[in-house]
Design goal:
mainly alpha; globular
Length: 314
């Protein structure tokens, strides 16, 4: 029993929590921004996969790491533009369109990877982001190794959560996004163009999703393989509901899921011989479902979410 509890006293556990949470933070913020404008983006799993591939491919072909993240963001925005064109302009089903983009982006990722990268026994690698040593902080006992030895994209994800929270709730732009997600006709009456707002939110949100995928190949790992997203996109969709569409809670939810995931990995080394490892793999998802059920009962859904908007119609 003591060994199970001692895991929480390990700095390595908390360092892993931040590392595992980073792609979830990017993805959840992206999905949250889309849904705050009234559009559900189920293309997130495919967009994250494509972002992981294209960001890695850019670096593999000579680009620097930050350019790789930028390339991933641009292609993510392009998929967002496609999703916006189909759902906002044409008014097609957001569920069907999102799932279609997931299938398309995932398949395109596999195809381009096999077409461009030579087939080898072991996947080719790139030099990933390295942990940043922050003078005076990285050397602190326990806190230093746990919190201040992360790579730059991890700190960027946390900063973006704070910035998005400020923009959504304390700026006119954020008010326009929230009004569009609640009542686009009322927003239009106030001089806001709901179509432009939704296009912008979907493209920016999709760019964040794609950056979340590229983190896996450019920071957490150093190579790409087709199944590396492993359902993180769907977890992000659930975390948006868990967060009640608030960036601060989205950050907390991503960290909570990452804690469950990091903890079960270490728990396997303590009691793994007595319990099938599949049960450990279930832990973060089961705990997330429980947390989601508890939080979802109080969540207030944006009133215009998944509702097509037609100018002049009510």
């Amino acid at each position: 029993m003591m060994e199970i509890l001692e895991i929480f006293a390990s700095a390595g556990l908390w360092a892993a929590v931040l590392r595992i949470a980073t792609p979830l933070i990017f993805g959840t913020l992206g999905a949250l921004l889309c849904e705050r404008s009234g559009v559900l983006n189920l293309g997130i799993e495919g967009i994250m996969t494509f972002g992981a591939m294209i960001g890695w491919l850019a670096v593999f072909n000579g680009a620097d790491l930050w350019t790789g993240l930028l390339v991933a963001a641009i292609f993510g925005a392009a998929f967002g533009l496609l999703h916006a064109g189909l759902t906002v302009t044409l008014g097609l089903s957001q569920h069907v369109t999102g799932l279609g983009i997931t299938l398309f982006a995932s398949s395109l990722s596999y195809f381009l990877f096999r077409l461009i990268v030579p087939v080898a026994g072991t996947p080719p690698t790139v030099e990933p982001f390295q942990p940043i040593d922050i003078p005076g902080l990285s050397d602190l006992p326990f806190i230093g190794p746990a919190l201040f030895t992360q790579t730059a994209p991890t700190y960027l994800a946390i900063v973006l959560a704070v910035v998005l929270a400020y923009v959504l709730f304390f700026t006119p732009l954020g008010l326009a996004v929230r009004m569009t997600g609640e009542n686009p006709h009322a927003a239009e009456a106030q001089g806001v163009n709901p179509i432009k707002v939704r296009y912008g939110a979907i493209m920016l949100g999709s760019a964040l999703m794609s950056v979340g995928g590229s983190f896996l190949t450019l920071s957490a790992f150093n190579s790409f393989f087709p199944t590396m997203i492993q359902g993180r996109g769907w977890v992000c969709i659930a975390l948006v509901v868990f967060s009640s569409w608030k960036p601060s809670r989205a950050l907390l939810g991503a960290l909570l899921f990452a804690l469950f995931d990091a903890y079960q990995l270490r728990l396997q080394t303590v009691v793994g011989k007595a319990v099938p490892y599949q049960l450990f793999l279930m832990v973060p998802y089961v705990m997330s479902i429980v947390a989601l059920v508890v939080m979802a009962r109080r969540a207030r859904v944006p009133q215009a979410l998944m509702q097509a908007y037609r100018r002049g119609e009510r």
